[in-house]
């Protein structure tokens, strides 16, 4: 079964176009190195929680939107290889002070696929 990297990040609505442009570029590079799928999705029907929620998880602030993203790989070995290549790719080097999202409030992780229907 495949391997998936998942990401949740808060993005200022007034920087959303910049974020999506960066995502288009990054996604193309991920796929160039062998990722099977690259998806960025915008919060649309995301309820507020009392104890936990997408908004609480990233400490969402007024004027921001939650972005939920995932990248699919053939397996963990492919993910490890592709991720190393992507992180070393000079096309993705950016000024951390000018990123269109707050990386300090982003969270991510790698997941082994368990069920596919």
Q: What is the general shape?
A: globular
Radius of gyration: 15 Å
Distance between the ends: 12 Å
**What does the largest sheet look like?**
4 strands, antiparallel
Beta-strand residue percentage: 25-35%
What is the number of strand segments?
A: 4
Helix % is: 25-40%
What's the number of helices? Answer: 3
Q: Largest beta sheet: what is the strand line-up? A: 2-3-1-4
Average pLDDT number:
95
Structural commentary:
- By secondary structure, the chain is α+β, with helices and mostly antiparallel strands.
- It is 29% helix and 27% strand.
- It has 3 helices and 4 strands; from the N terminus they run βαβαβαβ.
- The protein has a 4-stranded antiparallel β-sheet.
Summarize the helices and strands and which ones pair or pack.
Blueprint lengths: L2 E10 L3 H17 L4 E6 L11 H4 L6 E10 L2 H13 L18 E6 L5
In brief:
By secondary structure, this protein is α+β, with helices and mostly antiparallel strands. The protein has helices at 16-32, 54-57, 76-88, and strands at residues 3-12, 37-42, 64-73, 107-112.
Annotation keywords:
4-stranded antiparallel beta sheet, 117 residues, 3 helices, single chain
